[in-house]
Amino acid sequence: MGLLQDLAGPLSQRFFELGTASQIGVSIFAFLFLTVLINVIVQFLPRNSHEPPLVFHFFPVIGSTVTYGMDPPRFFKENRAKYGDCFTFILLGKKTTVYVGTQGNDFILNGKIRDVCAEEIYTVLTTPVFGKDVVYDCPNSKLMEQKKFMKIALTTDAFRSYVPIISDEVTNYFKKSADFKGKSGIVNLPPKMAQITIFTASHALQGKEIRDKFDETLADLYHDLDMGFSPINFSLHWAPLPWNNRRDHAQRTVAKIYMDTIKERRARGETGAQDMMMHLMNSEYKGGVKVPDHEIAHMMIALLMAGQHSSSSTSSWIMLRLASRPDIMQELYQEQIDNLGADLPPLQYEDLAKLPLNQAIVKETLRLHAPIHSIMRAVKQPMPVPGTKYVIPTDHVLLAAPGVSASDPQYFPNPDLWDPHRWEQGSANAPSIVRNEVEEDDEKIDYGYGLVSKGAGSPYLPFGAGRHRCIGEQFANVQLQTIVAVTVRHFQFSNVDGSDKVIGTDYASLFSRPLEPAPIRWERRDNAVAV
Ligand code: HEM
Q1: pLDDT in tens, 212-242
Q2: Which residues pair with 452 in a beta bridge?
Q3: Where along the chain do its domains lie?
Q4: What per-residue confidence (pLDDT) applies to 451?
Q5: Nearest alpha carbon to residue 52 among 93, 92, 104
Q6: Residue 313 contacts by C-beta under 8 Å, 6 or more apart in sequence?
Q7: Per-residue b/e over 173-204, b at no fewer than 16 CB within 10 Å?
Q8: Residues in contact with 406: Cβ distance below 8 Å, sequence separation at least 6, in sequence order
C-alpha cells in the first residue's frame, strides 16, 4: 500500500503534466485553426473595391511569402492569370501590390517622387553595407547627383581603356586557375564567373592597386559585406548576429582602405587620372561642396556591390546557356574570325560593335534571366491606377517585375526559348517591340543624372527605368561582352551529359542566379595555348 502510494504521487503528477501539455497543444492548435479560419472568412467578405484583388492565402502574416519566394516569376504568371495585371499579396505581413505588364512597369518605375520611395525599402539592407550618406542613406536629390558623378566617369574613352584590362584579366584567370589546367575538364562554373566578375570590375573601375588587394584581403572582406544582403536582413539588419558583426567590421575596413588611398593620391598631388575614384575626388555637389572622402569611399563600395551580383549572375547564365548550345558557342567563335580576322587580334572596344551575335547573347540572356526579379517601392500617398478603379493605399508596398513583360508571348514569340538570333532583323522570333524602336519616339527625361529614356512602353527593361534606372548598363554590357568574347576564344563548352538542359534558378538570395552546383565540361580550343 505504501509502495502504491509512493508511486501514485509522481504518476498523477506526470498525468497532470501530460494533461497540461496536451491541453496546451490543443489550445495552440485551436488558436491556429481559428486564426486560419478567420483569415479565410475575411477574404470571402466583400472587400474595398478600390483595392486590387488579394491573392488567396491560408495563414495571416506568412500569406504568400513561401510560394512567392520559391519561384517569383511563376508566382507572378499564375496570379496574373487569376487576378489580372494588378494584384496584392501578403509578403511577411506586408500588403504588397504587384503591377505587371508595360503599364505596371511604367506606373511603378516612373512613379513620381511624391508618390513612391525606394530608399524607405532598401536602406536597412544597403546602408550598413555601403556606409552612411550615400545612395539610400540620403535624400533622393543627393542620390541623383551621386549617380551623375558616377555616370559621367563612364565615358567612351573610359570604356576604350577597360576592354584590354578586362580581356587580360580573363585570360590571366584561365591561365592561373587550377580548374582550367590541361586540355579539358569539368568545373562548377558560377563561383569562377563570380571571381572573374569582381577581378574585371575592380580593375576597370577602381584601378590596379585596388584590384591587387582582391588577391589578398579584399576578397574576404567583400564576402563579409555580401552577407549583409541576405533577405533575412530586411528584418534582422540591426541584430548583433555574427554575420552582421562581420559585415560592420568589413564595411569599416574597406572604407578605410579607400579613404587611405584617397589621402595618398591627394598627398602625391596626382592629376590627370581618369578612374572613378579620381573623378569623384574632383566632383562637387550643387553649391560647390566637394564630395567628402567617406562618401567617395562608400560610393566605391556601392558601385562594386551594385554590379557584382547582377553581372556575375548574368555571366554565369550566359556560360551555362552556351554549354547547353555548343553550336551557338561555335557560331560566336566563327563570328570573331569572320569579323575581326583569323589571327584574332587583341580585343578592342570598337570590336564589340562588330560582333552582333556576341551582343545578342547578353541581351537574350538578360531577357530570360534578369537578376533583379522584384523592384520595390514604398507608397507615399494614395496612388490611383490609371484606367482602373484601384487606388493603392499608403500601407501597401509596390512591386514591379519587368521580367514578366520580357517573357510575355505578346511581345516575344516563343518567349521561353533562349534564342539570341531573335534580336536579328527578320528572325521568326523577333520581338514585336524592340527597346530601341520604342526609344526613338520615347519620352526622354532628366532626373538629375543625365537624359534617360522613360522606357514607358518597353517590355524589355532588365536595367529598370525612371529615376532609379541603372547607371551601370553600358559598363555591364562592355564587361559581359568582353568576358564572353575572350572565353569563346579559349574554350568550347558543353553540358556534362551532352544534353541541351539548363539548370534551375536559385531565388533564395536577393538576386536570382543559377542553382549550384552547375558543372559544365570545357575543352580548350586547338589553337588556344594550353596552360
Ligand atoms: C547585368 C548587370 C546589371 C543589371 C541587370 C542591373 C540592373 C539594375 C536595375 C534593374 C536597377 C534598378 C533598381 C531599382 O529600380 O530599384 C539598377 C540600378 C542601379 N545599378 Fe545596376 N544592373 C547591372 C549592373 C550594374 C553595374 C555594373 C553597376 C555599376 C557599375 C550598377 C549600378 C547601379 C546603380 C548605381 C543603380 C542605381 C540605384 C538607384 O538609383 O536606386 N549596375 N541596376
Answers
A1: 999 878 888 998 998 898 888 998 999 999 9
A2: 445
A3: 124-524
A4: 83
A5: 104
A6: 369, 371, 511, 512, 513, 514
A7: bbeeeeebeeeeeebebbebbbbbbbbbbbbb
A8: 367, 368, 370, 412, 459, 460, 461, 462
- Distance (angstroms) between ligand 1 centre and the Cα of 347 equals 26
pLDDT at 351 over 80: yes
How would CATH label the architecture of 124-524? Orthogonal Bundle (1.10)
The residue to mutate among 105, 106, 279, 470, having the most atoms of ligand 1 within 8 angstroms of its beta carbon, is 470
Question: pTM of this prediction?
Answer: 0.93
Distance CA 138, CA 291 (A): 13
Task: Return the closest-CA partner of residue 120 out of 37, 2, 234, 275.
Answer: 234
| Least confident among 89-103, 275-289, 444-458 | 444-458
Testing ligand 1's pocket by substitution, the residue of 107, 138, 310, 318 carrying the most ligand atoms inside 8 A of its CB is 310
> Is the ipTM reported for this complex over the cut 0.95?
yes
Alpha-helical segments (H) within 177-292: 189-213, 218-227, 233-236, 242-268, 276-281
The model's pLDDT over 476-513, given as tens digits with 9 standing for 90+, comes to: 999 999 999 999 999 999 999 999 999 999 998 889 99
d(CA 507, CA 498): 26
